[in-house]
Write a structure and sequence with these properties.
Shape: globular
Structural class: alpha/beta
Number of helices: 9
Strand content: 25-35%
Radius of gyration: 18 Å
Helix content: 25-40%
Largest sheet: 7 strands, mixed
Distance between the termini: 29 Å
Bound molecules: nicotinamide-adenine-dinucleotide, FE2/S2 (inorganic) cluster
Order of helices and strands: EEHEEEEHEEEHEHEEHEHEEEHEHH
Amino acid sequence: MFKITERTALTDNEYQIWLEAPRIATKAQPGQFIILRIDEQGERIPLTICEADASAGKLRIIFQVIGKSTAQLAQVKTGMSLLDVVGPLGKPTEIKNYGTVMLVGGGVGIAALFPIVKGLKQAGNRVITIIGAKSKNLLILQEECAKYSDELILVTDDGSLGRKGLVTEAMADVLQREPINQAWAIGPSIMMKFCTKVATQFNVPIYVSLNPIMVDGTGMCGGCRVTIGEKIKFACVDGPEFLGAEVDWDGFIQRMRQYHPEEVTAYQAYQV
Ligand code: NAD
Ligand code: FES
């Protein structure tokens, strides 16, 4: 059993959980994820590891309530235990000194971006981080990102904090200003698609982290298949990070919407 040692509401529908998982905490690297189940009836929920504290044997995860299972996860209390947690899964981010790097995070995707920001800073890169959200109160992990960034640009859709607009606009300004050796973007699919477009215009390679539906997380079910460079890949074992320029974005976005009606029905039934 995996004990929850802290549960905090970060925004109206985003939550942070610290949980005991010593063996995973020792091995976890930036870019990797876990799959958890709350109880015997629980769906398997894939979540990127936001932080791993190997000495305390704990993992930090941050998630947004988007349906029945994440709503159930938001109800857990400090002291309760999760039935199972599998990980660390997926290929780690390639952390090395690239020179100057640009990290772009949108909404709850900032939680998945943060360990990469930290890792790249510790590897000696000059780190420019751009984080965006709809509004000031949804812009998470500002202090943590600032700590490991040489420059942090805050962006909100409504202009309530930082620059008003989309993260892609801030990206284009930086790319016009100075050469960037490597970029990453993590957030909603549409954001990552357009971040790829902007980076590609400036000939900057960009990695994105794909979060399709996953079941086993070990490359067996095929649920997480994505088309990369016209080849079928499994995000759980071949990813979740891929070069944005190679992703079939339209196919990916369509597959992400595939079970939307069933997800809405399940969430509505849970709320009754
Ligand atoms: P959001 O919808 O508030 O978007 C965050 C930011 O993305 C916006 O503020 C904006 O700057 C940028 N953005 C949005 N649409 C854009 C566009 N068309 N062009 C350029 N930039 C755009 O974010 P949210 O509500 O927190 O998003 C949740 C989504 O993120 C979910 O769909 C979830 O699946 C996804 N997510 C992805 C990952 C991942 O690993 N890729 C991790 C966590 C969450
Ligand atoms: Fe089953 Fe990736 S989740 S193959």
